[in-house]
Design the sequence.
């Protein structure tokens, strides 16, 4: 299941990280090294094993669907790179 | 004022209660120590004005007899905890600048109990690293050096700033977080005490997320008792974190000093790994002998899936990280790069904002979660994780706690492991198992190697049985008699 340059380009696009073409080969090698080391998991017989989804068994708590904190647009947008009148200002989404 | 900074947290709190010195005096002594220790690069942000304001309020509460359990104690805060009105970076450029409008639950409980904030501590970027070298602000330097050498050593990671600050007497204790060993390995590398409690003990609310099913907060402290005092304040149920456990928090300090007579201590044979320095083998044997002398029964146990813990971790953690870090898109907070269209803005923002190790893990996480691979990697890893947890469950039939080394080596030189990601990942070989299983585990300094560098032993307990872990840690601390400090060179 080797990771080639095309896979790196695809994964970088999925992850929304611009990787310069000059880095792609080196990244493929790095990721391959790590994934090959991970392949040893195939040795473990996991037939019929229930995947573990949380460290301590607990049922998810429910709460009333009400605003607990929030309702202050100025606080919510305080760290925005660009905002106006309590709104986020973002690049054009629809051309 | 150096006498005040050399106090343990417990001794300082006793001194404040007895009015031997004021919270302002204690805080000023630590502010001076922090300033003098800038060559260590432990603090990303010093908050001396805030610290003194808090100390003045502490003194007022002591005067009126309304002081809390941590009143006037100057602490350092790992810069992964959101602090209201105080810059929080996660040691990443992508968040710069970010000033949280809210306070993390863990830190809010420390302030509730009267603690004083000295500033924000350096770490690996988004807590991803074992040497502090992935910090966008440069690595922390370990206060410890090899005898006769000026080589800069790593304090470990990711909580390297927390560990170095405590080791160098810059604060009486520090908050830290542990996803694969990030509290315990730095504690071992700096001769300090660190505990990762049971998953769910401390609220994750307001802690910058790395891998949500593994992340836990805990303290780094000078002594086992200090760690217990801090954890008692930090822990507790929080409705804002759906994985926070609704269980009572005992007074953990009450367990320190308890007799360990009759406790069964498991020694897992799989933790004897190839290439482990003989000094660590010997330290482990010393630890076994000390506990035997204290009346423990020693049993050899087997945790057969230990060697699969790291590879499983390097699927689960990057997968969760790639999801958690998707939020850094340059739209709502942090920095935004330029680009010709929206996708380019996202891609450039994340390319410029994240460091190489963070990108590497996001790419691995994205890959293992991508279409067609989910079952082969993520699901497989979660099944192996179950087997690792089952190993521990079987061990608990025969013992009450486990004793292992904390890390496979002493602190290494900065730059020594940076070219080989897997060699760096192996630092967590003894610690990562308990993150996967959610168990409490603690590192206690137990000796020095031939170069004069500290080494740690790890105690692992049953879920929610931090009490036994503290009792065993207290017994080890007493037997080891570890009192060494780094020679001050900064």
Sequence:
């Amino acid at each position: 299941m080797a990771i080639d340059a095309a896979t790196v380009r695809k994964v970088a696009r999925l992850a929304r990280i611009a990787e310069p073409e000059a880095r792609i080969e080196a990244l493929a090698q790095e990721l391959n090294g790590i994934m090959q080391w991970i392949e040893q998991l195939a040795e473990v017989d996991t037939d019929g094993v229930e995947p573990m989804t949380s460290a301590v068994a607990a049922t998810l708590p429910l709460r009333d669907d009400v605003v607990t904190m929030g309702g202050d647009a100025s606080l919510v947008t305080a760290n925005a790179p660009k905002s106006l009148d309590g709104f986020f200002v973002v690049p054009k989404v629809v051309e | 004022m150096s006498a005040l900074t050399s106090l343990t947290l417990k001794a300082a709190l006793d001194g404040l209660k007895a009015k031997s010195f004021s919270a302002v005096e204690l805080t000023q002594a630590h502010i001076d120590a922090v300033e003098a220790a800038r060559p260590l690069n432990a603090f990303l942000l010093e908050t001396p004005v805030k610290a003194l304001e808090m100390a003045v309020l502490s003194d007022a509460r002591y005067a009126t007899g309304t002081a809390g359990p941590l009143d006037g104690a100057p602490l350092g805060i790992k810069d992964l905890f959101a602090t209201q009105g105080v810059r929080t970076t996660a040691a990443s450029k992508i968040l710069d600048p970010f000033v949280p409008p809210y306070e993390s639950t863990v830190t809010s409980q420390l302030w509730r109990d009267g603690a004083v904030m000295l500033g924000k501590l350096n770490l690996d970027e988004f807590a991803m690293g074992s040497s502090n070298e992935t910090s966008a602000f440069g690595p922390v330097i370990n206060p410890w050096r090899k005898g006769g050498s000026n080589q800069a050593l790593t304090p470990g990671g990711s909580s390297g700033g927390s560990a170095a600050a405590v080791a160098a007497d810059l604060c009486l204790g520090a908050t830290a977080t542990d996803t694969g060993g990030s509290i315990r390995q730095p504690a071992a590398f700096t001769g300090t005490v660190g505990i990762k409690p049971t998953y769910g003990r401390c609220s994750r609310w307001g802690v910058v997320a790395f891998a949500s099913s593994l992340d836990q907060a805990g303290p780094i402290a000078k002594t086992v008792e200090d760690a217990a005092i801090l954890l008692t304040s930090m822990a507790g149920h929080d409705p804002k974190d759906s994985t926070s456990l609704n269980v009572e928090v005992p007074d953990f300090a009450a367990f320190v000093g308890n007799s360990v007579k009759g406790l069964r201590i498991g020694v897992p044979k799989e933790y004897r790994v190839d290439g482990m320095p003989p000094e660590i083998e010997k330290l482990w044997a010393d630890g076994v002998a000390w506990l035997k002398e204290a009346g423990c029964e020693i049993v050899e146990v087997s945790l057969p899936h230990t060697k699969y813990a790291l590879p499983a971790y390097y699927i689960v953690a990057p997968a969760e990280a790639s999801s958690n870090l998707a939020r850094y898109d340059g739209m709502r907070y942090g920095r935004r790069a330029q680009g010709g269209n929206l996708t380019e803005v996202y891609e450039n923002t994340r390319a410029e904002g994240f460091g190489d190790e963070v990108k590497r893990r996001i790419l691995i996480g994205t890959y293992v979660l991508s279409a067609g691979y989910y079952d082969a990697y993520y699901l497989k890893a979660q099944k192996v994780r179950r087997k690792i947890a089952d190993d521990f469950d079987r061990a608990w039939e025969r013992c009450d706690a486990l004793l292992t080394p904390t890390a496979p080596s002493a602190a290494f030189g900065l730059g020594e492991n940076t070219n080989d990601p897997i060699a760096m990942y192996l630092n967590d070989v003894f610690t990562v198992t308990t993150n996967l299983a959610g168990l409490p585990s603690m590192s206690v300094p137990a000796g020095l190697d031939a170069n004069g560098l500290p080494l740690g032993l790890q105690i692992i307990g049953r879920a929610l049985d931090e009490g036994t872990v503290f009792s065993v840690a207290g017994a080890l601390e007493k037997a080891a008699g570890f009192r060494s400090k780094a020679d001050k060179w900064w």
